[in-house]
Design goal:
The complex is a heterodimer of chains A (about 525) and B (about 300). Chain A has 3 domains: about 140 residues, D-Maltodextrin-Binding Protein, domain 2 (3-Layer(aba) Sandwich), CATH 3.40.190; about 120 residues, Dipeptide-binding Protein, Domain 1 (Dipeptide-binding Protein, domain 1, Alpha-Beta Complex); about 220 residues, Dipeptide-binding Protein, domain 3 (Roll). In chain A, about 30% of the residues lie in helices and about 20% in strands. Chain A contains 16 helices and 19 strands. In chain A, strands 11, 12, 13, 14, 15, 16 and 17 form a 7-stranded mixed beta sheet that branches. In chain A, strands 1-10-9-8 form a 4-stranded mixed beta sheet, with no helix packed on it. The radius of gyration of chain A is 24 Å and the shape is globular. The two termini of chain A are about 40 Å apart. With about 300 residues, chain B is mostly helical. Chain B contains 12 helices and no strands. The N and C termini of chain B lie close together (about 5 Å). The chains are: A alpha+beta (about 525), B mainly alpha (about 300). At the A-B interface, helix 1, helix 7 and helix 13 of A face helix 2, helix 4, helix 6, helix 10 and helix 11 of B.
Chain lengths: ~525, ~300
């Protein structure tokens, strides 16, 4: 975040919080102000676009998730329920999926949805000319990588095929237990070749776009507001809401003032500053949900002194993770394991537990008794207030528990990312959010072939464990494999020191019913109703 | 007059070319690129993206391509807002900023100039003290504090004006006022100094001794002559106000173009950075040309050609 913007942001929150503190002893509880049939929310910023095969950001997906339904769809518990596909067969030991598509689904322009719409969409996602960032999600499919990286040019060689109007077949290079989750993912929703070809870049304009989900795009005033309207022909029945107004209020303090003035019905982290969370945490309208977003301290294992696993373990052991919810004040969940609760493979005993004495012993074994002779180390972090709080706390804990002093270096977001990917420093703070609710999205990150592994750690044993777990079809064996991999990553090798899971903090007006939160932080509104 | 305008248009071309070239180089020197994200992309995907936006070509080729498009009025594609051109984005956002900035400018002039004049005419009085106190406060207090005060007072406490959003003319009142406070304060101080200087002139004393009333002297003669320095600052002030304010737009959730001056840089949205910079440069040139014309009207002795 730009420093000017950050300064302004911080100051505005401080000023409004001060007013709030003077004027209100507790959080305002709403009594009136509902707009019947309309849900008013804040999505914070302009979605970079609504072309679901091209987009990658959560704001776009918040809109698309309510406009489109894929082959499958997430339940609030994050299992995959039938969507456009009424059922599917997993064949050839998990190498082939055949989806049976419902024959009663219509696009908003009245045309019937067929398997060809999926074939077109998935091939468009892989087409190098589309420049789609999430194309790599389909790399487990036969010839998908080759086509996307221009090694082959014939899309018909890719293992994606509409066998007839209502049967869609996908062939994988190897079994992938997490594959089914990708079918619920926004970039894998179907799309219409005729519409995209007719309107080109403008096909997502409200007057051109055709969708198949519970809501339709009615109006889009850029940088200001998106309006969705109920789709009366939605194949699961018309949603209860008539309309959703999605405002783009970038400033948390302003959005929260709108909520308190009953001009918004629901606000989440995007509109909820920490002072407001503190003020409202006892309100009946308050909700707090842990997310599948893990924060960690990474070590570059090729740079001393972190070439020695004992030093890495000492640092991880010296971290008192219970402090984070106290200093960050958003009910963060401390964690020492990389695979978070409640995913398969999570174990509360994985990861180094807080043990300053054990930590000092390990450090002494590594040749730094009481931190003596420890080389000067700088920890890199992105320029953000909450991250600064975390790294300053860590700096203090390292001094107190290990007797080592760590320097801090912050960089602007994009500069930080570039440093991390080009020449990772010995120690850095980073985080990772799940793309789908499966341990693969976490475990895969530290394999030697993952471009996001900035620890420079390449370990054949870990790679093999993750590979095996990813293809294993037996759930129990799979759980054990991930557990073993996570223990190897966080204890034996201690390549990272996981710290805490981020949370979603939200306020929901009492007249909003049926709103459910999930750990992936995707919001679905088809079950929501307004009852003033 | 026509000569002046033609000369300014001809001069504007090399100025804009220099601005575009410097900005083009600067945005590419800044570390971090448009496709740097928290989730690093496979090199194949990055190659596809770079090819799509011609970023795989050598910088001099990119420059020539950009200049060629620019000559045709095409400001390029946004890397962040996929499928939208910079022309589209600015065409949506600029009218909003123009409306808000115009209202803010008008308010600033209507408040600042009379306040400064009263302070000068009644120099040393309570009115002068009050006016200068207000203008010092207006300059010193940052706009996000003024905005927060206004939102709290009129939106949350009295509930007579909307807290934020851009739905009706009523929604314009608080942001326009927030935008106007600082320039109004500046104009008030400038007007006071300028009017005081003119009031000392011999011809003012002559006018008064000939029996012309104070009001008439001030409004018809003093103010007209005092307006020259004010007109000078109004040029850049207009350009600043009508291209939008990041703080005010963010605070009141207004879909103007002020936000892009900051967010485009954060996103490394190269063409959008270029677009906002060029629009600002054009507006600055236009408003300075208008100021030069106004000089001639205010003081015919100034022969600008």
């Amino acid at each position: 975040m730009n420093s000017k913007r950050k300064y302004f942001h911080r100051s505005l929150i401080a000023v409004l919080a001060l007013f709030a503190a003077f004027s209100l002893t507790s959080c305002n509880v709403a009594k009136h102000g509902a707009l019947p049939g309309t849900l008013r929310i804040n999505i914070g910023t302009e979605p970079p676009g609504l072309d679901w095969e091209i987009e990658t950001d959560s704001t776009s997906f918040d809109v698309v998730s309510n406009l489109m339904t894929g082959l499958t769809q997430y339940t609030p518990e994050l299992t995959c329920a039938p969507g456009c596909a009424k059922s599917w067969d997993v064949l050839d030991g998990g190498r082939r999926y055949v989806f049976h598509i419902r024959d009663d689904i219509y696009w908003t322009d009245g045309k019937k949805l067929t398997a060809k719409d999926f074939e077109y969409a998935w091939k468009r996602l892989l087409n190098p000319a589309s420049g789609a960032q999430y194309a790599y999600f389909l790399y487990p499919i036969v010839n998908a990588f080759e086509y996307n990286s221009k090694k082959i040019t014939d899309p018909n060689l890719v293992g994606i095929k509409a066998l007839d109007d209502y049967t869609f077949e996908v062939k994988l290079t190897k079994p992938a237990a997490y594959f089914i989750y990708l079918t619920a993912f926004c970039p894998c929703c179907p799309s219409r070749q005729d519409v995209i070809e007719k309107w080109g870049k403008r096909w997502t304009d409200p007057e051109h776009i055709v969708t198949n989900g519970p809501f339709m795009l009615k109006h889009w005033q850029h940088e200001y507001k998106i309006e969705l309207e109920a789709n009366p022909k939605y194949f699961e029945g018309r949603p209860k809401l008539d309309k959703i107004s999605m405002f783009m209020v970038p400033e948390q303090a302003t959005a929260f003032a709108l909520y308190e003035n009953d001009e918004l019905d629901f606000v989440d982290n995007r509109s909820f500053s920490t002072p407001d969370v503190e003020r409202c945490k006892d309100s009946p309208e308050f909700h707090n949900v842990p997310l599948l977003r893990n924060n960690y301290i990474g070590f570059n294992v090729t740079k001393p002194p972190f070439t020695d696993a004992r030093v890495r373990r000492a640092v991880s052991k010296a971290i008192d993770r219970n402090v984070f919810p106290l200093i960050l004040r958003r009910k963060e969940r401390p964690t020492s394991s990389w695979i978070p609760k409640p995913l398969v493979g999570y174990s509360p005993t994985t990861g180094e537990q807080f043990d300053p004495e054990g930590a000092r012993k390990l450090l002494a074994e590594a040749g730094f008794p009481d931190g003596k002779g420890f080389p000067p180390i700088t920890m890199l972090y992105p320029n953000r207030d909450d991250v600064k709080t975390v790294v300053e706390e860590l700096q203090d804990q390292m001094q107190k528990n290990l007797g080592i002093s760590i320097g801090l270096q912050n960089q602007e977001w994009k500069v930080y990312l570039q440093t991390l990917h080009r020449d990772p420093p010995p120690m850095f703070r980073a985080n990772w959010g799940a793309d789908y609710p499966d341990p693969e999205t976490f475990a895969n990150l530290f394999t030697s072939f993952n471009g996001n592994n900035t620890t420079e750690w390449k370990d054949k044993k870990y790679d093999a464990l993750v590979e095996q777990a990813g293809t294993e079809q037996n759930p129990e064996k799979r759980r054990k494999l991930y557990e073993e991999a996570d223990h190897y990553l966080c204890n034996d090798q201690c390549v990272i020191a996981p710290t805490y899971l981020a949370t979603q903090n939200a306020m929901v007006k009492p007249w909003v019913h049926g709103l459910k939160f999930n750990a992936l932080d995707i919001q679905f509104y088809k079950e929501v109703s307004i009852d003033p | 007059m026509l000569g002046l305008i033609i000369k300014r248009i001809l001069l504007a071309i090399p100025v804009l070319w220099i601005v575009a070239s410097i900005t083009f180089m600067l945005v590419r020197i800044v570390p971090g690129g448009p496709f740097e994200g928290d989730k690093a992309l496979p090199p194949e995907i990055v190659a596809n993206l770079k090819a799509k936006y011609h970023l795989d070509k050598p910088v001099h080729e990119q420059y020539l391509l950009y200049m060629e498009r620019l000559v045709h009025g095409d400001l390029g594609l946004s890397y962040k807002y996929i499928g939208r051109t910079v022309n589209d984005i600015l065409a949506d956002a600029f009218p909003v900023s123009l409306q808000l900035g115009g209202a803010g400018l008008l308010l600033a002039i209507c408040i600042g100039v009379p306040l400064g004049t009263i302070a000068a005419v009644r120099r040393g009085s309570g009115a002068d003290f009050a006016a200068m106190f207000l203008s010092t406060a207006g300059i010193s207090v940052p706009s996000f504090v003024i905005g927060a005060l206004l939102i709290f007072t009129f939106g949350i406490w009295l509930k007579i004006l909307p807290v934020a959003l851009w739905e009706s003319p009523r929604h314009m009142i608080l942001p326009a006022l927030t935008l106007a406070v600082s320039p109004a304060a500046y104009l008030a101080r400038l007007t006071r100094a300028s009017v005081l200087e003119i009031l000392e002139k011999d011809w003012v004393r002559t006018a008064r001794s000939k029996g012309l009333s104070t009001d008439k002297t001030v409004v018809k003669h003093v103010l007209r002559n005092a307006l020259v320095p004010i007109a000078t600052v109004l040029g850049p002030l207009t350009a600043i106000l009508v291209t939008g304010s990041f703080v005010v737009e963010f605070m009141y959730a207004i879909p103007g173009m002020g936000r892009f001056f900051i967010t485009a840089v954060g996103n490394r949205d190269y063409d959008l950075i270029m677009g906002t910079t060029l629009v600002f440069a054009v507006l600055l040139i236009v408003s300075n040309t208008i100021v030069d014309i106004v000089y001639v009207i205010l003081d015919p002795r100034m022969q600008v050609t």
